[in-house]
């Protein structure tokens, strides 16, 4: 085999929806998809953040649309899917990345509100997005590929002070497998990525800054550092691409060796 180019464009003219695309991992995924030719719908609650993602994509020569949506509301995610199809055409790729972390305290100290918020956004949000995306993708001759963002905190590691978040992310891993089995026959390929600590504010412990987090990673992680958002995006793009055409219902860990 001769490799003629290192530049790949696995998503040329494909339509991709990314939730939580206004920051962190979601923005990195949106930019990476656009860099490989996808037309991207960037969804999330804060319009300004989404507009920034769109501007970054357009500045790099890509096409994107910002759609405000709260993933815990069925009507919002259905409207985001409809907007993607209307604006760019059939929905080829969806990345369900929106999520929140409310932790740091033992379970007995967790408020009911924080419990419900995490379950609403991290679990019900992924369910509602999956349902809307699958209902669209199964009508398309070429089907589609979906990647959910879970976390090593779910089924992969043990983490004090994060029981509710961990429960929500375990649900994402298990929901991914079930949905994948239910809908691969419809031409919809569903997988998850479980990141370990990633360079966004979500992985900072209370009172920790970037330098303290880096120092912690040097001694606690086999790789000696946390993952970049681009490294997580690379795993997401692999699963969303035809490179992974026979990968179904998997949960790909990207964690600097934490669970090795
Ligand atoms: N950073 C880590 O170390 C790490 C590790 C493992 C897994 N993860 C997971 O990776 C995903 C992205 O996290 P991140 O680190 O990139 O953090 P982040 O920058 O806080 O990104 C989360 C994004 O989700 C959006 N969002 C939150 N609630 C939403 C809702 N109800 N509807 C729509 N969008 C919503 C947020 O935007 P709005 O507030 O504007 O809606 C934000 O853009 C999350 O699912 C997180 O659990 C992160």
UniProtKB/TrEMBL annotation:
Organism equals: Streptomyces chartreusis
Supply the SMART domains for this chain.
PKS_KR
Q: Which Gene3D superfamilies did the record assign?
A: NAD(P)-binding Rossmann-like Domain
List the GO molecular function terms: glucose 1-dehydrogenase [NAD(P)+] activity
Name of the protein in question: Glucose 1-dehydrogenase
Q: What protein family does this chain belong to?
A: Belongs to the short-chain dehydrogenases/reductases (SDR) family.
Which UniProt keywords are listed? Oxidoreductase
Q: Does rRNA-binding count among this protein's keywords?
A: no
Provide the transmembrane region boundaries: none
High-level lineage? Bacteria, Bacillati, Actinomycetota, Actinomycetes, Kitasatosporales
Q: Where is the Ketoreductase domain?
A: 14-196
Task: Indicate the enzyme's highest-level EC class.
Answer: oxidoreductase
Question: What does the record give as EC number?
Answer: 1.1.1.47
């Amino acid at each position: 085999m001769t490799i003629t180019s290192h530049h790949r464009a696995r998503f040329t003219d494909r339509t991709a929806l990314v939730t939580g695309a206004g920051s962190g991992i979601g923005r990195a995924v949106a930019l990476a998809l656009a860099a490989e030719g996808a037309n991207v719908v960037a969804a999330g609650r804060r319009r300004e953040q989404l507009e920034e993602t769109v501007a970054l994509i357009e500045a790099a020569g890509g096409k994107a649309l910002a759609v405000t949506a709260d993933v815990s509301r069925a009507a919002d995610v259905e409207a985001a899917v409809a907007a993607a199809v209307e604006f760019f055409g059939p929905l080829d790729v969806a990345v369900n990345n929106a999520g929140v972390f409310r932790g740091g305290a033992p379970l007995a100290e967790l408020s009911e509100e924080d419990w419900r918020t995490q379950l609403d956004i991290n679990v019900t949000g992924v369910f509602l997005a999956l349902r809307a995306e699958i209902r669209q993708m199964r009508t398309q001759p070429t089907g589609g590929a979906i990647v959910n963002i879970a976390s090593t905190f779910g089924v992969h590691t043990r983490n004090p002070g994060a029981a509710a978040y961990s429960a929500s992310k375990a649900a994402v891993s298990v929901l991914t497998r079930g949905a994948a089995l239910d809908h691969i026959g419809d031409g919809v390929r569903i997988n998850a990525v479980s990141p370990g600590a990633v360079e966004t504010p979500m992985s900072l412990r209370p009172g920790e800054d970037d330098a303290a987090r880096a120092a912690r990673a040097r001694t606690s992680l086999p790789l000696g550092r946390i993952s970049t958002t681009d490294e997580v995006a690379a795993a997401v793009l692999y699963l969303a691409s035809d490179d992974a055409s026979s990968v179904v219902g998997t949960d790909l860990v990207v964690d600097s060796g934490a669970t090795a």
